[in-house]
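Quick one:
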Amino acid sequence: MREINQAGLDLIKSFEKCVLYAYDDADPSNPKRFIQAGDPVRGTLTIGWGHTGTVKPGMRIDQAQADGLLRQDLAWARRAVERWVKVPLNDNQFGSLVSFVYNVGEAAFASSTLLRVLNDGDYNAVPRQMARWDKTTINGKKVQSKGLVRRRAAEIELWTKPVEGEDVESCVHAACVPDRAPSESLTIKGAVVSGVGAVGTILVDAAQQIQALSGLHEYFQIGAGLLLALGIGLTIYGRLRVMRNEGV
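Output:
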């Protein structure tokens, strides 16, 4: 399974709190009250970077353990990105999506327009789709959350950030994929240009053969000269178009 990079991990940490002892996530106090055996818990018993499930009252951990638990908790989000995304992602794009999925959930991601446009190859549409996920439900109504606005902005920033060391020649990731693949249009243009060049070559050959014949009437010789000029012109035009398309 693909690992999340440090930039993605740091992004997620910036929107979570790390508490190195067991606490009640519904506790409004700051700092959170240390939950020990027998203490009431109104919400969910939590520890580290929001880890739940294996927490017990009276539990304490160190920073390395907290970071390890976070990586474990991110495993399902990493699997979800790998499962649903069908196009290449560079490390920053992968980290950005893992953060996004960890926040909104796999089911929401799997049915999202974001995933559809991404799998269609429209990488540049992803930031716009991400930004739409900035609302939370309060009293049955969807309202914009300042925290989610900040998180989406951070995920978008990471998504669009180039990965150090990648370049156009060696990159096989999505950051190096253009908005539209030029292969089809270049193929069509190449066919047209090649056709023009071929016609030009034929005209040149024909004109040269006509010009080489002796005893022709004067007007016919003039026509041969014009045909020769047209053929040379079309050949030069076709070759110039090929050179431009090839970046020469």
